[in-house]
Design brief:
The protein is an alpha+beta fold and about 160 residues long. Helix content is about 35%, strand content about 15%. It is built from 5 helices and 4 strands. The protein has helices spanning about 20-35, 75-90, 90-95, 125-145, 150-155; strands at about 35-40, 55-60, 65, 115-120. The protein has a 4-stranded mixed sheet, covered by helices on one side. The chain is globular and about 55 Å long.
C-alpha cells in the first residue's frame, strides 16, 4: 500500500502496510536506498533546548539517524519515523535549503564525510510538515494490528 504518497511528488518505492514494525520499515528503507542505516541516540541533542529532536546524516556509504534521548519509547519512535519520512520523501534529493550540523552537536564527525545533513528545527518548513505528516501516518500503521484470517472470517 502506498497511500502515503503525495500525488506528483518523488518518493522512495517502499510499501508500508498496517502492522509493519519499525525494524521492518528500517530494513525496507535500507534495501530501497541500497545502503546501511544506523540509528543512534545522541545525548547532545537533549542539550539543544528541545528545538532539535533528530537528524539524518547521509554520508558516502551509510545513512545515520541520530535522535534525542527520551524516556518514552513512542516519543523516540516518532523522532526516528520523522527522519525515515525524510528519506521516504527523498528530501535529500529535492531540498536545497540544508542546514549543516555544527561541531557542537557532532564534534567527532568529520565534516568532509557528510554529504548532506538534514537537521531543521522549524515546523513551519514545508519539508518538515510533510515529514511529520508521513511519520504520523506510519506511526498509526505500526500501532495497528494486521487483520488475521480468523478475524476476517469470524469478526
Amino acid at each position: 500500500m502506498r497511500d502515503w504518497i503525495e500525488e506528483g511528488r518523488p518518493h522512495l518505492p517502499v510499501d508500508i502496510e498496517p502492522g509493519i514494525t519499525l525494524a521492518e520499515l528500517t530494513r525496507r528503507v535500507q534495501v530501497a536506498r541500497g545502503r546501511p542505516l544506523r540509528i543512534d541516540e545522541l545525548p547532545a541533542l537533549s542539550d539543544s533546548d528541545g528545538a532539535l529532536c533528530g537528524l539524518w546524516l547521509a554520508t558516502d556509504d551509510v545513512d545515520i539517524i541520530l535522535h534525542a534521548p527520551s524516556e518514552s519509547r513512542l516519543h523516540r519512535e516518532q523522532f526516528i519515523l520523522h527522519e525515515l519520512a525524510h528519506m521516504l520523501l527523498l528530501h535529500d534529493r529535492v531540498d536545497d535549503k540544508v542546514e549543516y550540523v555544527t561541531g557542537s552537536v557532532l564534534p567527532d564527525m568529520e565534516p568532509a564525510t557528510v554529504i548532506k545533513a538534514l537537521a531543521r528545527d522549524s515546523i513551519n518548513d514545508e519539508y518538515e510538515r510533510r515529514a511529520e505528516r508521513l511519520a504520523d501516518v506510519i506511526a498509526t500503521y505500526i500501532r495497528s494490528q494486521p487483520v488475521s484470517r480468523f478475524s476476517e472470517i469470524f469478526g
